[in-house]
Each structure stands twice: as structure tokens, then as C-alpha cells.
Amino acid sequence: MSTSSSSHRRGARLRREYLYTKSLEAKDAASFESKRLLKAALAAGKAAPTELRKEYDELKAGVDAEDAKTEAGASALDDEYAGAGLADPRVCVTTSREPSSRLKQFAKEVNLIVPNATRVNRGGYRVDELVATCREADFTDMIVVQETRGEPDGLVISHLPHGPTAFFSLSNTVLRHDIAGVGSMSEAYPHVILPGFESKLGRRLGNVLKCLFPVPKPDTKRLMTFSNDDDFISFRHHMFARQGPEKVALSEVGPRFEMRLYQLRLGTLDNKDAENEYVLRPYQNTSKKRKTL
Q1: With left for phi above 0 and alpha for psi between -120 and 50, is residue 11 left, alpha or beta?
Q2: Is the pLDDT of residue 30 over 60?
Q3: Are 95 and 206 found together in one domain?
Q4: pTM as predicted
Q5: How many of the other CB atoms lie within 10 Å of CB of 146?
Q6: Is the Cβ–Cβ distance between 233 and 226 less than 8 Å?
Q7: What domain range is 196 assigned to?
Q8: Tens digits of per-residue pLDDT, 225-261?
Q9: CATH code of the domain containing 147
Q10: How many domains in the chain?
């Protein structure tokens, strides 16, 4: 899994270009927020906020010139998944070092539920070596499953080539062979259901999850559900069959587990000094009214 020095230099240069361009966009964030406040005031028939009156003419001209895309503040750099759907994703699935037999089995099942995934034995390779090799092999994402004392308790999704990287804790992990009466697993591209992802961060995380999966055919009978409830995400995998015009039968084919996001980082897994978009803080665990996603 060795890489040439030229590919390292090219990757570093692309990363610097990406961060520089994104920093230029960040400078426009204050202007975008000011235009949003002005537009809300105009829509409500109110006077412009006091702090905006000095630059009212300039902001009003900007608001009048906006179209549907610029109004949303969207750009290809704000959304690293802007090209999703143009080509099927390719996902690398691997584990932490010296995995237990249960973690290996869990990695196999993650490899089965994600179409176009390739499972790679970790061996003694470092994280930076894994990321560099995945870039060279044109993988779009890398999934790393982790454990504590033989129980899967962590999952990392890193989008390539520039990020973001989402870190999840896992709980209540149930493998396929632990589910009574489990059905056979289809290899069709699944429909992905994401209820409860309502905030800006939630929609961002929804992109991280759904872009692991290719665009399905309309008639596929396979479902992947990531259901958010109070920032805890329940994953379920089902097959369904219609039994009438208003009746559908579901059969769980596993695995199942609960996820909680504790960090979202702008860079890839090997960029430890990259900027954090979100970090779970201890006080958030006791804030009953605060829902991040």
C-alpha cells in the first residue's frame, strides 16, 4: 500500500486549494446572514434592523439580485456531496487494528449492507496509509468500525478526497445471526429513509449517510432506515412486500444498531488538525430541550 511522493504532494496541494477556497466563502457568511435578516424584515413588513441600516442599499441590491440557488447560500464547496448521484459511490470498509472475531463479523455485515463496498483487512497499516491508498483507488468513502473488549462501539465515515469525517458511537449492536428468523439479504440498491434530520447539521449528516448508497431503482424492495430521535440514530434494514393496495409486510434482515454523532470534522480521517463542524459537549447530555439534529 505504498504511495509515491508525487501523489502525496498532489493530495496536499488539492487540500490546500480546497481549504483556501472554503475560507473565501466563509468571509461571505456575515453578509449572507445580514441579507437573510433584511429579507425576513421586508417579508414581515417591518423596518430594517438598526444594525443593518447603514448598509441597507447594498444589502437590498443583493437581495433583489438573488436567485433560488444563491438565496440558499449553496455552493459545491459548501456541499462536498454536490456531485452525488452522478456516479455510484465506492466504499472501503475496514476495522481498527487487531480486530476480534465479532468485530470482523460486524465489518462483513456493514460491507454487505453498503452496495459497492470493499472490505479491506487493516493489518498493521496506519490511518494515513489507508486514506492515501483509498484515494489512489478512487474510493469515495471509507468506513472504519471500532470496538471495546470485543463489542462494536464506534463507527467512522470519512468522505474522500477532502472530507468531511463523521465519528459515531455505537450501542445495542445486534448482528444478523442474532436476529431470530432473519431473512435473506438482497444485494439490490436500497431506498434510504432519514426521518428526523431537521436542523442544518441534521441535513448535513443526512448527506453523509445517504451518499454511501447508490441511487436505487424505483421498484427495489430493500430499505435502509436511519431514524433520528433526540440525536440518537437507529439503523434498521428491511425487505418489504406489498400484500394489497394499502398493506405492506416488512421483514428485518439486519444488522441493527444505535448511533450517536460525537464529532463532525471538515477533513479526512488523517487530518487530525482539521476544523470541527460539530463536537458533542458534556453539558449537551443534560440539556433535555436541546436537539442538535
Answers
A1: alpha
A2: yes
A3: yes
A4: 0.76
A5: 18
A6: yes
A7: 91-286
A8: 999 998 999 999 999 888 878 888 888 998 999 999 9
A9: 3.40.50.10480
A10: 2
